[in-house]
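USER:
Working in pairs, take the chain set out below, taking as long as you need, and write a paragraph about the fold.
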Amino acid sequence: MNFLFLKDLFGVFKFLEGVYERVRRLLVPPKAYSWQTLIYLSIFSWFASSLAVGYIKDVISFFGWLFLIAGTSWYTTDDPLRIPGTFMPVGAVITGFLVSVFAFGQGDDVITPRTIVLWPTISALITAIPEFFEGSGTDVQTQIPKPEIRQRLIVMVASCMILSCWIQFYFVTDNWLRQYPSLQADNFKQSTFVIRTESPEKIPANGVVILDKLQPLVEEQIAGRPWSQVERWLINADQQVGNLGRRVIERNLAKYEEKELWVVRPRVVNTKSGYTLDLLSIWTGPSSNPRGFYLKKSCRVDPIAARANSSIANVSKPDKATVAEIECDRLPKFIAGSPPAQQ
């Protein structure tokens, strides 16, 4: 029993010794000129740059990136592991990412859209460049790759460039949807390259914001005012509501590029008792519907009798005045098609 226990114990020690040996070979440079030395130089450069200031900090950080890229490239090309189905080494992909971050990172935000977009193309170029050289060390000569190698390089670089284009297209589309969020309420069923993964918005949020912010301004202009003034205001409603709408759009949609694509227009219709004032926020941007769409809030403007004291001394003889009352819909309506013409 003791013999078996000692045998198992020696086996554990031997296993740990093997692990230690592999770690030592990985971390301890076999000679001064090795990839480990470059990695250690990059770590030392980053530590030194954290203690420096000004342009010295940038210079040391620059060399730290160069050491890291060179060391990583050296290590991953010693015994290259290739991506399945291709002849592109995994090391080229890692090195390409580091080069892209180094070249196109911005301050603390090192992962930018440009970094991701150019990553595949840079990795392909890193894979292709060694094929134009032969030899090793200081004895290196340029060469033209064989026809079959040239063909593989062209296919690989072209494929990676197409991949970069598709990634760039994703970022462009994402930016469109952030700057023009009203497009998310549209129908993409006829699109050949956009697939909706979430349920569509039933109504554009910015169109709702415009009408919700416009309504109290219009009510302030009408409610409680003498009926004669309100009728004159309604005659010039196109100008009055247009000015209020522009103020609302500039104030509430300032961060969106689509603010230029929204227009506010009124529609005034006579009724038996007064008027119906429709507030329209009209989308003039692209739409799957050739006639576009708009949102509408209807307001009913009616005259009501009001009593006002003509003077403090004559309280028993009040004057009768007619003022306006306005009541608007609580929620706007989404309507696909062109807005109606002013009657």
